[in-house]
Predict the 3D structure of the following.
Amino acid sequence: MRDDRTSRAARRNATRLAPFTAALGAAFLIALATAPSVADDPPTSAQAIERARALEEDGFVEEAETYLRELVDTERSLARDAEVLLELARLTGDPDEAAALASRAIERTRDARIIVAAHTLRGDVLYASGIYMAAAGEYGAAARHGSTPGARKAALWQAASLLAAGDATTAIEEYRVVAEEGATPDELTPLAKLGMGRALLAAGRPAEAAAEFDHVAETYPDDDVRIRALAGAAESHQAAGAPVVALRALEMLASEFPHTLEGVLARERASTLSAELAAPPAETEEP
């Protein structure tokens, strides 16, 4: 009997202490990930980044940032390491600090891969702040390293930034470069063509925009791409004075993607446009 009471008490204690032991376990894992080596040697840049990413993947983003920040503040070699600086720039929640760290990374390396990533990060910060022309400059600096992974995507964002800044004419040409680059189309090709359609529409060239959107809708089977292409085609044909063709694009969008927001909006717009087309023309008064 006494053993049963002891067993029940042990189980109650275990249940009561479970949250505490779980927290203690998490703290131990963080301490283990951030602890120096037995010899107290500073980690290499690769080791530091690996530990920070392990923390991030486990949901300890702030701890990952703190770990790298303390290394940068205390270890001279890591404070000058471009890859570590760029990783800290990615983790920090302060946009200004992220931009500054990315600049330091650029100054301390000739590695095109890091330079592209750092300029892209600076572009992201500026774009998110609505400073579109400056963002285009950062993306353009990244895009100049054309053979480096990420450079072509930066060129796509450069075009998007130019369009957001109101320079549709230059954006058209930048989108065209991305769309036509490479021997075969890839995942960026339809995105560049969609962007070019948007830029053409913004530049007051709706017929050319409609042709671009029609081509994308007919050529690329990806659902997200087709949704955007059909929506763009409907808007462009309407702007070009071809409401019947615009209605056809809206009906296809509503029929093929009925449960998406775009499909629902297309169905409503198609109903309105159909009624407008069916209405008799307004009589004009004799002068």
In short: The CA atoms of residues 179 and 186 lie 9 Å apart. The chain has 15 helices and no strands.
